[in-house]
Amino acid sequence: MMSNTTLGGFLPLPFDSLELPRLSIQRTATYLPARPAAGFSLIMLVIVFFWASQKTSRTATIIGFAKQRYRAWAYLFAGPGIIQHEFLKSLGKPFEVHAPDVRMVFVSSPEHIKELDRAPDTVLSLNGAAKHLLPDLSLLAHSRWEELLSTKPTVNGAISAPLYPMMINMVVLLNARSLFGEELIKNQRFMNSALGYVEETLLNAEIIKLLPKFLVPARIAEKDQRNLGQSTPQRNDCIQWIIDTAPKQNAWTAERVIYELMAIWFGSVHILSTTIVYVVHDLCLHPEYIDPIRRELEASYDEFERTGHGLPLLDSFIKESARLTPVESMSVRRCALRPFSMSDGTKLEVGEWACAPAGAINTREDYYPFPKSLSGFRFVDSALLAAIDEDTNPPAARQAKHSKLADVDHSFLMWGTGRMACPGRFYSAAFMKIIVAQLLMNYDFTLANPEAPRWISWRVTKIPRPWTKLVFTSRK
Q1: CA distance 147 to 322
Q2: Angle at Cα 288 formed by Cα 286 and Cα 292, nearest 5°?
Q3: Where do the domains of the chain lie, and which CATH numbers do they carry?
Q4: What does the DSSP assignment read for 438-451?
Q5: d(CA 145, CA 239)
Q6: What is the model's pTM?
Q7: Which family does the similarity line name (predicted)?
Q8: pLDDT tens, 31-48?
Q9: What backbone torsions phi and psi does residue 317 show, to the nearest 5 degrees?
Q10: Rounded Cα gap, residues 57 and 60, in angstroms
Q11: What are phi and psi of 2, to 5 degrees?
Q12: Which residues contact 405 (CB under 8 A, 6 or more apart)?
């Protein structure tokens, strides 16, 4: 049976075993041959050597290009493993990874990450919540869990159901309530479109990345026709809504429209639903954490609803799960709009990407004690843990400094870094706590098959397998 590490692991590259012939020519003192025949022979020898060296150079170029393209396409299916492999080889220095459509330079040291953050937006570009909502979201999450599970077959009081599709449904509903209001979430047609948009964007974005560049001018020509007053196909979708409501005097670029759209909807649904799925998986795989978190919820959930703060045990467990199973293995993406050089001489050409290997950084031994082991309460204040009954509190590796899920740090890049850190991270952290808390307070749950692979890899993303089932039993 294939394990998760195999799925996300580094594919063997057969080109690495190829040895190229090397031709070494010793330079000697220049001399004039004594005989014409000897001179002719020497000239022919030089020509043969030159031809052979050129042929070897061409062969090396072809094989080198083939190796690079093989790795680039392998990246689509084994991105996290390839990044981890190159990270371990780099020993903290910048390293490059090729995708079929772009060259990416990864940096992992705090100094280099700060360089990316300090670079002007005109050179490296990120673009080329409210606590009064929490009680409403809690009630909505509670009723939605009941509604979703009521449609599944029950055997001996237990319900077996795939988690990932339900989680997407749950996150779409709650997120739409926060972003679009009470009325629109009652419109089933709107909700179907909202969910379909996220799923179709995931698929279509990957297809578009692999399409040839010559298709771009057709879309540009359509825009030019529209600017000249000519009729063009009418668009009636979320993208058009953003365009129509954008400032008229300082019109947004296409890149800005795309950024707004993704930031508002796609990212909030895809990242949140996937992160929560892995949190629930980890609770199933480490059930010793469930009772302490439930006791915390019984004592403090009402206060959390009022303030949006608190629940440090649940907060830490979500952060630890996200550390070990990040949705994406890279962060701090920056696209070079102009040539850019780092302090160590690493260069980026226009169109290339600088990023940080977030997944690999999450398992650095100098950042995390026992970095590859899940320790659900590693981020909790030691004084708080000491006040909890040690007999019922699972042992945990400890960080030298406690931290929260929404904190930004160079050792935990889930939210980005510096001035471009995700501004919605506080809302997202509270949102995830609500969904997981409602599940914990109302249901017992286990993985139907704990040994089965739980995700598939595409580029740097770990996508939950939609057919992975959980068994739910009501606690009522």
Answers
A1: 27
A2: 125
A3: 135-224+265-329+359-474 (1.10.630.10)
A4: HHHHHEEEEES-TT
A5: 31
A6: 0.67
A7: Belongs to the cytochrome P450 family.
A8: 333 444 445 454 555 555
A9: -65, -40
A10: 5
A11: -80, 130
A12: 315, 316, 318, 319, 322, 379, 429, 432
